[in-house]
Amino acid sequence: MKGWIILAIIGGILYYLYTETNTLDEPIAEVEAIFQQAEDKVDSMTGTQIQRIDDTVELLKTDIVDRLSSAEAKALEAISQSKATLNAYKEDFCGSRAPKHPAFSKENQTYICDQL
């Protein structure tokens, strides 16, 4: 029982030093720097880097190009200009109670929402 009390006191002191003072900031930064160096070394040794490629919009354009009218194709180009415009389109026009988009037919709108 005495060991648990001492362990709790040490834990409380460390918690206080970590949250209320800047005493442990420098040692923590040093440890984080060591971990970052090790991670960088492992990344350089493996030679691989993870790159996320988002091809959903390009695949959507190639899949739906035959179904779209010229006005709908222009609207799809305008929507797919950036992530922000895509997210705004999803929020505004995708969902069960979403209003109809002025440029797209209901079927094309549903197809685009399903693909995004």
- How many β-strand runs? 0
Low-confidence stretches: none
User: What is the helix content?
Assistant: 55-70%
| Global structural class | mainly alpha
State the helix count. 6
Describe what you observe in this structure.
This protein has 116 residues and is mainly α. Helices cover 70% and strands 0% of the residues. It contains 6 helices and no strands. Helix 3 packs antiparallel against helix 6. It is elongated and about 75 Å long. The model has no long low-confidence stretch (mean pLDDT 80).
Please tag this protein with its features:
mainly alpha, 116 residues, 6 helices, 0% strand, 70% helix, single chain, elongated
In short:
The chain is mainly α and 116 residues long.
Helix-strand layout with pairing:
Elements (H helix, E strand, L loop, with lengths): L1 H19 L4 H22 L9 H9 L5 H10 L3 H11 L12 H10 L1
Helix pairs in contact: 3-6
